[in-house]
Amino acid sequence: MNPEARQVAVWERLRNEARQTDQLIDQQLRRLEVLALFDEERMIASAAASSSMKGVGTSSSVTPAVPDSSSSLLHGSGAYPPPASTMSFEDVESQYRGADRDIDEFLRRLEQTVLSMEDACRELGPTSAAARHTERFRGMLTEKQQARRRLATEFRQRKDRYELAASRLAGDARRRGGPVDDDARGGVRILMDEQVAIQHTLNRVNGLLEQAEGTRDRLRMQRERFSQIGDKVLHIAEHIPFVQNLVRRIDVRRRREVVVLGTVISSLMFMFFFFL
Questions:
Q1: How do residues 149-195 score in pLDDT, each as one tens digit?
Q2: Which of 38, 127, 156, 210 lies in the 20 to 30 Å Cα band around 44?
Q3: d(CA 149, CA 151)
Q4: Is 60 helix (H, G, I), strand (E, B) or coil?
């Protein structure tokens, strides 16, 4: 088996691994979507009913909402089976964290596989069919990472609304439970307003962080693309003698300038310390 056929066989094996990992990621993303888009309105209503009976309703039941195909954040056929119809918020959050850790592991595995595929494509050439398919897998990986970040943002927003509503219900229950003077009510109201303002600021900061992460990913993709362009230029230079000689002359001149500049700086530093 010649080296090119061996590289093709390695690339095909990596492609099969990438497909299997991509299917696992789709399944976990559907599960994560079900957990992230829980029905916070029903949860708040249940918390209100619980607070009216028990006095404090911070732990209530929540029904995860199964999103329909029109409003889904993901694009895929079928849906992951939802969890139990009635769950506490702590259970939903625990399952969400577990599913998010699984997706993180699968995404890392897929990224490593795509990097190995790109290494194999360097031997096959940038214009081969394997290189085009590898670029498609890179786009799929980026899309999955963005979907995970969108679900994380949605879950965090719903969680913040739930916790804020639960704290308000708890405060109302405490005020109904005993006599409270006007000063205490005013203080509680001020604290609640401050909490709302702080929560709004945190949500804004989280949004800015999400934008920064997206910008970082785009810059990383641009850097990888420029690296690929540089590899293509070097590949072309190896086959064209004139371009190869030109690149060699540019490199020699650059090294010469570095040597001259280093000598001048060393002389200036010596004179500076000598006359100091």
A1: 888 888 888 887 777 777 776 666 666 655 545 555 666 667 776 77
A2: 210
A3: 5
A4: coil
